[in-house]
Amino acid sequence: MLLIIKRDGSVVEFDKSKIERAVLAAFEDVDGQISQYAETKATNIAEYVEEQAEASDHELNVEEIQDLVENGLMSCKRKDVARAYIQYRYERNRVREHNTQFMQEVARKLDASDVQNQNANVDEHSFGGRMGEANRALTKKFALDYCMSEMSRNNHLNNYIYIHDLDSYAVGMHNCLTIPFDDILAKGFNTRQTDVRPANSVNTAFQLVAVIFQLQSLQQFGGVSASHIDWTMVPYVRKSFRKHYIDGLKYIENYDNEDYFNHIPKDAGIEDEEYKSRPRAYQYAMDMTKKEIHQAVEGMYHNLKN
Predict the structure, then answer these.
(1) DSSP 209
(2) Residues 6+ apart with CB under 8 A from 288
(3) Which SS3 state, helix, strand or coil, does residue 65 take?
(4) Cut 0.70: pTM above it
């Protein structure tokens, strides 16, 4: 019994019909059909390969069998078919090699044998870290194979260019986004679960900042930021100050005039002279607003860290 060695090292019986099918496929790829000439050549080449295998002093492997098929095709007048077979073989080998390298990389990521901890926030030894790194290997391969031109792919692989965040290329979402907190806090926003109304105090505003950071980070890759959070919070500091000032008028100065309370502009600055006309209420509002700001910022940091 004539045996050959497969790529995985296993030994199987030589099957001449597989060679005939491969040769016929090459003819059909070029001609669009299978002629009598093609059938004759397929049979002749299969018999030639069989003879060479029987005469060999060792069991041939798949690559050696394919070399013999190439020799058989090159010996006939249809050099265009030989080229088609050679090109097909090259492409299959390239894909096979690429897939083998890919699976080896996935294995390294899953067993954490090549930990690099490229992201300071991700421990690649952890369960989530290993799964994330294996997923990154998959999405990188998908992006290179299906989402760009051959030129771009080769330029990246040969380090002529560098595609930033290649693992997220296929999804095409934003990276390193500066969130427009001014508009979102002033106008409110909606999630899939509910609508969120505009903030009416500095404490609520900072809570919403934490919520927005968390929601957005789940919808994209890379960092999210606020470019001027101090200026963003000015309207909400004023709103909180106004509330505390009215409480000071009510409970410290025993002043109870709703018309006056409503008269105070909602966007009045904390240095407004009308505020200072009631010094005890003003000082109370100042103290309570500072306390609220400290607590709000601490709450935001706590929510973001957890």
Answers:
(1) H
(2) 240, 244, 247, 248
(3) helix
(4) no
